[in-house]
Structures are given as structure tokens and as C-alpha cells.
Amino acid sequence: ETKTEIDFEIFKTLQIKNVGFEEYREADIFQVKRLEDEKNNDFISRVASYVIEKEAPISLETLCIRLAVLLGYKKLCPGLQNSVENILNEKSDTFVQKDGFFIHKDTEVSARKAGSRAINQIASEELEKCVLAAVKSSVGISTDSLSLYTSKLMGFSRMTPTISKVLEKIRDDLVKKNQLKIDGTKVRLAD
Fold first, then answer.
1. Residue 66: how many CB atoms within 10 A of its CB?
2. Angle at which helices 3-13 and 143-153 pack, to 10 degrees?
3. Which residues contact 96 (CB under 8 A, 6 or more apart)?
4. pLDDT tens digits, residue range 152-175?
5. What is the pTM of this model?
6. What count of other Cβ atoms lies within 10 Å of the Cβ of residue 166?
7. Are residues 44 and 83 in contact, defined by beta-carbon separation less than 8 angstroms?
8. CB 41 within 8 A of CB 83
9. What is the C-alpha to C-alpha distance for residues 114 and 16, in angstroms, rounded to an integer?
């Protein structure tokens, strides 16, 4: 048996506690109607604000993909991404960009299920909250099982090498920040 096969068997049998992760909900961008004579940048700004309010933290790329659909583009183009980034940067009194993700100022990031998002579409801060919740909800979880358990809590249907690598990095970052401690093969919250 390979490590992947063993991990998959563990993944299938994990008993998941309800730790209260919020559901991730994609914003319905078609709820924002274009005003008569509204300039393109103003419309983009209003839709982006709506999406950020509903989905934050959200990556610039994900936000632009949503806007591309609304504006009739078939795929994401660099011009649209640059325009959106410039529009959002003009609203720096409203939004904060951190590690490529936008969020409204003074908004608390919470642990959410992945929903339709891939692991790389989830902000590090949100992933940290998920890992911390996984450790908090389990007694004596092993370093090997933490990524599996966290990914299952987040609603991923399978464990991939990418998910494992990202969650292990988050775990290591939390250890460096003194929020987690590794005792032998077990992970626990730091004192």
C-alpha cells in the first residue's frame, strides 16, 4: 500500500464532529443591477463590493472571474484584472488586500467550509482558523491526521497532495506563531 492509499482509507473512516464551520456561499452577482447611465467602473465597483461583502476573503482572481461572467467575457483577461485591482485600490478606505485576498476593513475572518473553492482560493487566515478549530475539537490529534481531519471538516471530498501540502504549511506557520505546539507526533493548542 502506498501512503496515498493509506491516507484515503483513514480519510474515509474519520468521524467528523460538528465544529460549526459556516457554509461558503457564492454571491449571486446578478442581484446587482446596472443603473441607467452607470459608468463601467462604477458598476464594477458596486458588484465587487457586493461580492467581497458576501464572500470575503476572496482572491482577486476569483473576484475577476465572477466579474468577467457578468460583463460578458468568456474568460479572464489581464485588462479586466488590472481594472478591478485599480478600482479596488481606489477604495482602500473600504477594502484591505492581504496576501492577494480582499476583505472589507474591520471584518473578522471565520472558518468556513470550502464549498466550490479550491484550496488555493482560500485565504491563509481562514485556513489557520480551520486548522485551529480542528485541533481544538480533537483530543491528541496526530500530525499525520491533522491535514486529513481539517480537510474533511472543510468539506473536501478527497485529500490531494496539494491540499495536504497547503494544510501542512499552515500547521507549520501556526507552530512558528506559537499558536500550535507539536509534542512528538501529537498536535495541540499552544499554552
1. 21
2. 50
3. 102, 103, 104, 105
4. 889 998 889 999 999 999 999 999
5. 0.82
6. 19
7. yes
8. yes
9. 15
